[in-house]
Amino acid sequence: MKALRYVEIGKPPVVVDIPIPKPGPGQVLLKITAGGVCHSDDYVMGLPEKDYHEQGYPLPLTLGHEGAGIVHEIGEGVDSTLKVGDAVAVYGPWGCGRCHNCSMGKENYCTNAAAEGIRPPGLGSQGSMAEYMIVDDARHLVPLADLDPVQNVSLTDAGLTPYHAIKNSLPKLGAGTFAVVIGTGGLGHVGIQILKAISGATVIALDVNDEKLKLATEVGADHVLISDASAAEKIRELTGGLGANAVFDFVGANPTIALAQSVAALEADITI
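Below the sequence we write its predicted structure tokens.
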């Protein structure tokens, strides 16, 4: 099979031919239908050699932590209703499945992963930028049904990340409240859609150019503002001087963090 692999520190990834992997006990082999590209892929390949190995990344590494595919083969002992031919998406933050956090569905906070060498696909385990991919456990596969894998594969990361942030703040985002979204790119524009779908908040979106603000409007933002020196005052005006009940900063730079702090209402959440 063909796979996009990072094979040499500091060099671009290359497409190589490698054998199709065989699923072991408890594992599932997918025939990949879509693999997303994320800034994290660039981050991994930008690490100096010392940092790369200290963080536990192997060489060669098949990239891709956003994946979707068709179940191709099921390993021995898989206890699941999963069938060959099922369309699925891959949940990326793999955990042990046994610790307290995993038992609550918070595998991204697994307390055993580091000690047991459990790494996410594309970020330690072999990832989705290949024709086939091994998934460590059937519980990490989500039915995709008739959704287009190409259009929806990024939800496995770019969707989960803002959802996780927003879910924690939902008790503060009922009717009559305000949520500010700073940065309306890959994460932020999904965050706007999630806020409109599951909260009662009025959404104020900020970015540095009109093109991104046009997208923010198209996906549901109630107000859009250029993120400049006047943004904080305008947010205060929109919120009746009270500020936002939750601020979601999808940029995480010093200026945006300062902006988030300046427009947060009493008892507001700021998530960066």
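Residues 2-153 form a domain with the Quinone Oxidoreductase; Chain A, domain 1 fold (CATH 3.90.180.10).
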